[in-house]
Amino acid sequence: MLTVKARAVDGPDKAFREAEIIRRDLDAQDVLIEIKFAGICHSDIHTAHGEWGPVNYPLVPGHEIAGIVTEVGAEVTKYKVGDRVGVGCMVDSCGECVNCQKGEEQYCLNGNVPTYAGVDKYGEPTQGGYSTHIVVTEDFVVQIPDGIELDAAAPLLCAGITTYSPLNHWGAGPGKKVAVVGMGGLGHVAVKIAAAMGADVTVLSQSLSKKEDGLEFGAKDYYATSDPETFEKLAGNFDLIINTVSAKIDIDAYFSLLSLDGTLVNVGAPPEPLEVNVFSLIGHRRSFAGSMIGGIRETQEMLNFCAEHSIVPKIEVISADQIDEAYERVLASDVKYRFVIDTSTI
């Protein structure tokens, strides 16, 4: 077993501290990855603060992992030492259920194994990417294309696939009007991907403070949701709305923006329930859907797509000593647009 450095939190109101954790010995199909960068996702904050249910502390978050393979198991065929790789939100699944067989491991009927705050097949708690190394079975590792730098690649392992998957599934492309709600870590990536797919993209944000960025990222229009006239002007306008906001919003107001047969997909995950008036849906055969991440195959597809279209998130690289400050800034919407930890500082 390998003892590695990490940053852990001991409770919902505790600060991050230096820690050491154990990574397992390599099984035949495992790879050891030296983590170079780890993105900070809003999910990390929800989990660290205990907002999504009980947490087995101490917790090492982080499921946006980019690094280098330093050792491989005896039967590994997909990767070799020196490869640039990534690990996202899950590190295992049953591999046998109908969803896993379809390449949709994120919806494993027996439950996938999350990268942190989960329990692996050995009965041990999983710990994430705020650390220097991780051991993962090769089937849950993806190749990072040479055209994407490792620091910028890290957020794609969650923010990238979380937005690519619904845009891909619901057919964002030429002739489709797509709205992105929120211009944060998820939203700004969604804008870039949807625009690269050929969709007509509009940003719906609380204010116009990030309008210049939104248009630069590929949006054709940008509206403030704090202005009631926005909802009147855009009523019935969109084929697809991607809601990236992890807070409670007036979801019925956004349903009014959907066209006939339009769909609103929630990828943000607020801790409190959203209230839905069914009449907001049935009047124009609208749909309300949810989407998590993508499977491993689709995650690799997303990375290749981003490399082909020169899509990278806008990041701010921080040291491990700045994690608590970064959390506070994310909650205050004071980041453009994703924090990434330089794990050499752990």
Task: Detail the topology: elements first, then pairings.
Layout: E1 2-8, E2 17-23, E3 30-39, H1 42-48, E4 65-72, E5 84-87, E6 90-92, H2 98-101, E7 113-114, E8 133-137, E9 142-143, H3 150-153, H4 159-169, E10 177-181, H5 185-196, E11 200-205, H6 211-217, E12 221-224, H7 228-233, E13 238-243, H8 251-255, E14 258-266, H9 279-282, E15 287-290, H10 296-308, E16 315-318, H11 323-331, E17 338-342
Parallel strand pairs: 10-11, 10-13, 11-12, 13-14, 14-15, 16-17
Antiparallel strand pairs: 1-2, 3-4, 3-8, 3-17, 4-5, 5-9, 6-7
Helix pairs in contact: 4-5, 4-10
Keywords: Metal-binding, Oxidoreductase, Zinc
Family: Belongs to the zinc-containing alcohol dehydrogenase family.
GO molecular function, one term: zinc ion binding
Per CATH, the architecture of the largest domain is Alpha-Beta Complex
Q: Distance between termini? A: 19 Å
- The class by helix and strand makeup works out as alpha/beta
Mean pLDDT: 96
* CATH H-level homologous superfamily name of the largest domain: Medium-chain alcohol dehydrogenases, catalytic domain
| Helical content (DSSP H or I, runs of 4+) | 10-25%
Unreliable runs: none
Oligomer: single chain
So what's the CATH class of the largest domain? Alpha Beta
CATH level-3 fold name of the largest domain = Quinone Oxidoreductase, Chain A, domain 1
Could you give the order of the helices and strands?
Answer: EEEHEEEHEEEHHEHEHEHEHEHEHEHE
Shape: globular
Cα-based radius of gyration, to the nearest Å: 20 Å
Counted up, domains total 2
Query: What summary fits the major beta sheet?
Result: 7 strands, mixed
Number of strands: 17
